[in-house]
Amino acid sequence: MTVVNSTSEMLKPESVSLHPLGAAAAAVPEMLCIFGTGDLGRSLGLRLLQSGYRVVYGSRRPHSCGPLPQGSQVMSHGAAAQSASLIFICVHREHYGFLETMAPHLAGKVLVDLSNNLKKGIHPEPNAAYLQRLVPGAAVVKGLNTLSAWALQNGLLAGKQVYLCGNSAEAKRAVAEMSTKLGLTALDRGSLSAAGELEDFPLQLFPEWRLPLRVAVGLTAFFFFYLVIRDVIYGYVEQDKDISYRIMVSLANKDVFCVCPPSLIMLALCYLPGGIAASLQLYRGTKYRRFPDWLDRWMLCRKQMGLIALGLAFLHVIHTFMTPTRYSVRHTLITLVVDEMKNNKTTPFYFDNTEAWGQDSFYALGILGFFLYVLLGLTSLPSVGGSLSWREFNFIQSKLGHLTLFICTAHGYIYGWNTFLRPATYKWYTPPAYMLCLIVPSVVLVLKALVLLPCVDRTLTRIRQGWERNQPTEEIGKVTNL
Amino acid sequence: MTVVNSTSEMLKPESVSLHPLGAAAAAVPEMLCIFGTGDLGRSLGLRLLQSGYRVVYGSRRPHSCGPLPQGSQVMSHGAAAQSASLIFICVHREHYGFLETMAPHLAGKVLVDLSNNLKKGIHPEPNAAYLQRLVPGAAVVKGLNTLSAWALQNGLLAGKQVYLCGNSAEAKRAVAEMSTKLGLTALDRGSLSAAGELEDFPLQLFPEWRLPLRVAVGLTAFFFFYLVIRDVIYGYVEQDKDISYRIMVSLANKDVFCVCPPSLIMLALCYLPGGIAASLQLYRGTKYRRFPDWLDRWMLCRKQMGLIALGLAFLHVIHTFMTPTRYSVRHTLITLVVDEMKNNKTTPFYFDNTEAWGQDSFYALGILGFFLYVLLGLTSLPSVGGSLSWREFNFIQSKLGHLTLFICTAHGYIYGWNTFLRPATYKWYTPPAYMLCLIVPSVVLVLKALVLLPCVDRTLTRIRQGWERNQPTEEIGKVTNL
Amino acid sequence: MTVVNSTSEMLKPESVSLHPLGAAAAAVPEMLCIFGTGDLGRSLGLRLLQSGYRVVYGSRRPHSCGPLPQGSQVMSHGAAAQSASLIFICVHREHYGFLETMAPHLAGKVLVDLSNNLKKGIHPEPNAAYLQRLVPGAAVVKGLNTLSAWALQNGLLAGKQVYLCGNSAEAKRAVAEMSTKLGLTALDRGSLSAAGELEDFPLQLFPEWRLPLRVAVGLTAFFFFYLVIRDVIYGYVEQDKDISYRIMVSLANKDVFCVCPPSLIMLALCYLPGGIAASLQLYRGTKYRRFPDWLDRWMLCRKQMGLIALGLAFLHVIHTFMTPTRYSVRHTLITLVVDEMKNNKTTPFYFDNTEAWGQDSFYALGILGFFLYVLLGLTSLPSVGGSLSWREFNFIQSKLGHLTLFICTAHGYIYGWNTFLRPATYKWYTPPAYMLCLIVPSVVLVLKALVLLPCVDRTLTRIRQGWERNQPTEEIGKVTNL
Fold first, then answer.
1. In angstroms, rounded to a whole number, what is the distance separating the alpha carbons of residues A93 and C441?
2. Which residues form the Ferric oxidoreductase domain (chains A, B, C) (predicted)?
3. How far apart are CA C222 and CA C258, in angstroms?
4. Burial label, B124 (beta-carbon count in 10 A; 0-12, 13-18, 19+)
5. pLDDT tens-place string over residues C379-409
6. What's the gap between Cα A41 and its chain centre?
């Protein structure tokens, strides 16, 4: 049935005229034109052929332009432009000049500008705007410029988002349809004035990672110098020992490596803005007033902060595993044995049960904390996080996250359980690093505990459902928003 | 060509009237309405604007409803409803009341109910059914309620599946088209009677993980108490030693931590149902009879079982790495040296070559087993598993899985290779934990070996291709199904 | 508005006739037929029902064909074929015979052949071609055969690519539309002559991993025997020691495990083709000449090489962590202490500061290198890599990759920093393994350093933008391609 009907439809020219853009519907596939036979042009052509289009290349040297995908044609620019209504411009901006001379051939065509720049701000106007100025009669669409030749060749497009912009809605729609057939999801970003933004997009270098990375580097540097001063310089000045070798691996007073405190602090910083936001909402009695800008920015980079914290924790764990093989650690152990033997005590190795309990708890908490940390990290993977329901995601990131923070903080407290009150701990009147790094996590945990109190929790839930403490009386309980 | 034709199409009103829903085809984008200016409403609006729609908000306080996405309009509810045919209801169910009074404005509109509840079963009827009852003239579609404001804002929608249900096929189709433009994949779940199911969906908390987690907790608890009794209590009663500190990290008779046996057993439990299913099919001589329910349920949670087994193996491995830094282990080592020195034997440290071979093999198998375990886990990631061909997936999950199980079981056997026959091994006449945990894996491996026998394998392959031992004679070899 | 218009459209039969294939647009969903009630048939039916289609099964035993998805119908093959225009053939090729007798019922229908074979090349012609020969009046489309019953049941389809081929463009279009509704991305692979290729697709077993795996196995075997000869056999022959136990875990001269050199070499081999390609382009003065085939093949398996290198590095790291718990290592340590005690030196344990610096640097570089290695591996995950911009991906894979290689190479150099000139290092006049494995990485790093020289870098950038040294004069600077 279907086949027969569709075939008969093709015989009726008037019915075809109602689907002028649905060229894929016709038995003969639509012809698309690509200007440029470079890597991108070739990969794009291959992909278009695979998706059922016919492809013609426009080249300055049609007879010597290297290997092109099987099934495609190659012509001079002018002839190629004639045979298609959609033309991909896979040519460097520097060489757009020749398009101006071809403007008459391009009138009424859709030109897709896929070009990128090597750096930001080297041209006063975006490439696409420049192209539109050269060929005013054509409908320029900027887009697909985030696709690499590599991704096109390897078919890594499924579900990928691409942005389009352009002044002609028709042209954008034609490009969007073509994108959909390639397995892409096209999003409309408005008129051609957005072209600059789209062209800057592939030049972005982890913009959302900058703040968290700065915080991490700052914290790590602080603790590095803090430990150098307290450990190496203090030892040199007061005890006349040269333990400068410690700088390299660990700066270790046993295990407090300079990445371990920043890791805990950054994990706490992931959960601090949530606590601050809850306090603000409680204080204001409404959720309809915006948070200050710094809080918004902070909340948007929590995921990145958490991942950096995980990276630091990973370094901390590997470092701990390496500890027993280190020269200095083995040396200390051997010296201990030899000293004990020489002193020839009768009960040289009294087994301290409390010490064993303390240390084993310390390790158990560390292992469990790291395990939960890794779980949190795994659910940050786009493909894993995307398969969770909202409540599951919330459970993991909030409940499990706070549990992880609690366990890691406890790990820190147990580390120093018997040294808090010892004066020798406070070299040069400064607290040891592990105490410093427990401050922020403790604050976050206390804040969370307060929010979990039944009376506070109830008020907060009501506020988040839209209740307002100072609501205009006539509207109370009328409409609240999700 | 394309552009020209499309433009001329826009001039012919009759051709436009044939595409009443394809509003995206027109030069002026379709207007969508959102009731509610909360987080979800704002994020959804932003996303719709990005996808090329126009957006109007309906608000109870159009002049003081906080910051809305650039490019959107805001009006009173009534005015907003007038200007669009598709209305998103981003309002809490508690406040649906006002929609009843607006019913005349909403007649003939598509209302998309995105609401969720905080808990299951707090309302007798689903939110969407309630909404339909309030506004009988509108076509209510339940759906998109699995999207979070967070995912909408961060553009994590590509390829995500959303479910729709509703009584009007037209309305569902309109919502499905809109979803497709947002990059979502809409699946139809039937009439509005399925709304309750869709509303429970975001409230699910790892339903498929429950059974495996219970098994894991049960096994771990069993081995924990088994080890406490055999190690700590036995030591206390029979040898008068206090080794309670061991409870915390390890309960370790050297390395048998209480998570290690459950890990091996759970890995075996992943492959046991496959063996049972094959045996059942061989016994019945057909694949067309259903498996018992418990076997079906078991087979559906194999992936989760495997991942929990991997988690436990991860803990086991970390614990092993931590062993040499533990206080008690270092104490034992030092004591050993000192004792040896005191006794002043002439050849105190005879190097036992067999022991070295055994232990190094034990470690090598453990390392290899863990490595394969991690590989198996990586291919369970949706994005990795999805890129494998059927045969590759099968190769990894079946062949590599059984190899992993074999190596881990061998790791267990070597652990106790020289203690199987020693009476001291059987404290209080109980076998040690590592023996207990080898039973299930051994059974699975024997079962697999039997299935791999050529004669059995041949019969099984024929059965799986549709052959039946007791097939009605007239149909033998006629049609079998994939 | 929308709903009303669409409904009125359905009342006009002529407007409906213009959308013969857009069955989803009609209020009554399209009926699809499935021949075969096996696992695949049932899963596919379930999925089609979820996507809003009606489903009818054709079965040889309509009354006893086991449980089918709720909402589907089941009939005899003939009756089922009558009621749908698109028929899925979920039957083994061996039983296609009955379709020939049904040919009259199937004329004009679209037959989707989903079948796969168990092995390559067991049939002279592809299943789909055979089917077309049996039913010449139908339009056979080969495709969807990469979907497993398991993926269909679990809804793991979103964004997945499926390939279609067939002689009728109409039939392919109908199947492609159906695929899109299921959340799949359909790619057209041309006429039915491509069917054999599509049928071989699910039988592929990691084709792109073969070369890297062979290289890895070769290198590992080489280093294994090299270490056995230099360590075990040399020790046995020259020093009369039996250290055969070392074969099992490590073949370790301290830490040089037989997987560690291959890991470093394979990481270098990932970056070597890039260097070779750059040199070739510089030498030829153009980017328009193709690379030799071996270089192309090499460049295509860089990702797999890198991942295998990561796997080997992972083994190396785990092995290092296990070192202190090994029997032989503990034995060496104890023997050392006892020997020192017996000799009763006055300053038995001189702490060598240089040694401590060297070893701690060695470990620090190793930890950092492994950390970066893991980062590189994570960005190879499809879901992570897909979310990076082109510049970010480039930054990670090129800059960070070379940094990783540099750090790992430095780790290797420091390992042997004080043994390069010692004659005892060269047992039997052979260099130790770690020296051998530093050759390739050093070459790659030198090559990269040369390419980074400003003058070379500038020329290379120009060549990659399309500049040619020997360009025909009339065209210089005219058009270059992306």
1. 37
2. 264-396
3. 9
4. exposed
5. 888 778 777 777 788 888 889 999 999 999 9
6. 29
